[in-house]
Specification:
Number of strands of chain A: 2
Shape of chain B: elongated
Pfam family, one (chain B): MrpF_PhaF
Order of helices and strands of chain B: HHHH
Distance between the termini of chain A: 71 Å
Structural class of chain B: mainly alpha
Strand content of chain B: under 5%
Number of domains of chain B: 1
Structural class of chain A: mainly alpha
Oligomer: heterodimer
Main location (chain B): membrane
Radius of gyration of chain A: 38 Å
Helix content of chain A: over 70%
Helix content of chain B: over 70%
Strand content of chain A: under 5%
GO cellular component, one term (chain B): plasma membrane
Number of helices of chain A: 33
Shape of chain A: elongated
Membrane topology (chain B): Multi-pass membrane protein
Radius of gyration of chain B: 18 Å
Family (chain B): Belongs to the CPA3 antiporters (TC 2.A.63) subunit F family.
Largest sheet of chain B: none
Largest sheet of chain A: 2 strands, antiparallel
Largest interface: A-B, 36 and 42 residues
Chain lengths: 779, 102
Amino acid sequence: MLHFLIIAPLLIAILAPFLYKKLKSVHTGWFVLVVPLFIFIYLLSLIRTVIHKPLLLQLNWMPSLGINYDLYVDGLSILFGLLISGIGTLVVFYSIYYLHKTEKLGHFYVYLLMFMSAMLGVVFSDNIFVFYMFWEFTSLSSFLLIGFWNHRHKSRYGAQKSMLITVFGGLSMLAGLIWMSLEVGSSSIRVLIQNSEIITNSPYFMPMLLLVLLGAFTKSAQFPFHTWLPDAMEAPTPVSAYLHSATMVKAGIYLVARLSLLFAGTDEFFLIVSGFGLLTLCWGSYMAVKQTDLKGILAYSTISQLGMIMAMLGFGTGIAVFAAIFHILNHATFKGSLFMVAGIVDHETGTRDIRRLGGLYTLMPITATLAIFGVFSMAGIPLPIMNGFLSKEMFFDAAVDLRLESGSIYQMVAPFFPIIAVIGSIFTFVYSMILFFKTFTGKLQLSKLERKPHDPPIGMLISPAVLVVLIVVIALFPGPFNKYLLTPAVTAVMGEVPHTKIYFWHGFYNAPLFMSLIVLFTGTLLYLTRDKWLHVYNRLPGRWSMNKTYDYVVNGIFKGSTVLTNSYMTGSLRSYFRIIVGFIAIIGLYTMYSSNGFALNINSTPFSLPEFLVALTMAVAAISIIFVHNRIAAILILGVVGYGLSLLFVFYSAPDLALTQLIVETVTVGLFLLCFYHLPELKRDKETSGNKLFNLVVSVGFGVLITLIGISSHSSKWFKPISDYFLENSYELGGGNNVVNVILVDMRGLDTMLEICVLGIAALGILAMIKYNRKGDLE
Amino acid sequence: MNEIALMFLHWSVLVSLVTVSISILLLLYRTIKGPTNPDRAIGLDAMGITLIALAALVAIQLNTTFFNEVILLIGILAFIGTVAIAKFIEKGVIIDHDRDKS
């Protein structure tokens, strides 16, 4: 059933364009809505089974290659599956009201369903190849969705950027996964985890870890690969809410969580994941403060929250992993609702720029109420109805409470982690406040808005409202969520059942509470004095931002490859020939040198004086051609070489060859003379002396190579020649005394036939070239 | 007596071969040096004749009749080649199109 459900969105996607075309009166989204809803309900029904024992559903696809469509259902994948299908339902519902019927809805829902299917595949797949396949499907469908309004330049730019970065990471992840599966000998993720010692003790552990983490970091927008996420905000808002806050960007988180049983406990994993996570947390929250676009703030906020989750997964302690999983759930709820609120504001006012917004509270009271829950939950305001606070405090707890074995690497870095965490959270607080207060309070600037804003239709409010209700419910009654969702998920990540309960109040004297208070006060102070800090925000990071680096790298690759290609693709046949012959000479001579292939056997037949004189004539003629400046003279001297060759055939008693050579030589000379009528005077290209020297070296090198090969092959007779057979059997089998002719037409007649074909083709080609002009007409 | 005749034949063939070969070399000098293209054409034509001589001498040396065709062929080809070159040098074309047009 689950096998089918995962690809069900793909199958329904085939229908979407037809529904859009045939049933124009009904918004296509209504048909699509059924799919995620059904999956969500089915997954809910699975929870009870999975809580006790994870399911393994197998289906053979390519068993001979070890690629099977195996699904593994445990707490972690169920949690993600519920997020994907649940928020998917809400997003589809929201998009019904957000996107007008005049948009290309057929396209939109095909992409969205494709993405949903891919994402479900990612979280449930057990086979690394199937996993990777779905992983790239998410990149592809995300690319299509970001570029949905493809008439805009920025959409296309953002789509390309996200594609380049995520596919780059995806490919390196594939390399890492294949490497690990080769070490273990299985392509099942479950088996990989069971054999984690083989991998962690392997000498190639570091590259494998880095390759896999590269995939996770690019997908989850970790520093320095976060740069695609803000540009992906060109997508329609439902897409941003779904892909770039709740689901796709968590695929990397999912990968790290899924494999943390494999890597956890190693110092490399701890340092890289938590280090980059904290860096991303601080950088993302700092950059978010600078943004003026609502979705820009939310994008950087997503980056920083993802960094926080990543850092906690890196900590690897029980409380940290629990907090990470909890925050995945919380972040999906509040960030999804915030994106939808931003979409509503955009929809109702026509702008998302906080410098033009303000004072919307009175005009859009319901939207503002929804926003306040999302924002305060994101900032971690200590109120019992905000789920963000619960996970944020657990994050502080985890940062303080690292394993402190003496001498370990944990002890060295542990004192810094709480400080970094607090700094990141302060900025989180500041941008959350900006997000809310700059939009909904302050002075109303109606003149700058395109239309008078008011609360949107009720349908648009339902989805964010559901998420906001979830925020409050999770905060007030965390128990059931803990029991049915979080505990199984943490069990799947840690391999053991956690003993964590969620409390709002930990008592007075504990570090997390003080850290929360510091964040609260410093954050408020920073927000109130924000105008004074503006010039600092605007100066940093300046030209050091990752955006600029990305542009520099991409442009550099284009420019560099253009320069490189132009350097050898000159369009001059002469230089191509130089390259070809030069390489043959270098490689041939090197092979001959390294394999010691040269052989010389002087006990061959002696030659007579006349043979020598003819050979000398040919050599002198051949060399003199190079220095001749007259075309006819050159062709006549070439004739000398040809006639000399036929004479050599006479000397070595090959009358047939001599005959043929004579005729061909004469015809060739005649043909050359025919062509000369149409050719201009022979002019030497003015070449630099360096080029001339290079030509000389290449030609001499090639000549030496061919000479050496000739001498060597003549001197080393390894096998008996088969010519005796022809001599003996020419008359008996072929019925002819002329052995050469018997070979040509009888024993190896196929070659002759094809040579005749070659001549025929050449003749036809010449006819075609002469008789037909460019337009293809007969002259 | 017969042996002496064979010996004489052998040596005379060898000497002729060497002499004709040297003449080829000298003809090559004329072909390369020129100074005009007709000089070169004559050089090549004469070289064709020496080729006939060489082929015949080699046939005697190898005591075979298979090269007789070669000798005849060289005669024809040397003539055709020289005519073609001469026509080219004189008119610039080898095959006239004038008659087809009229």
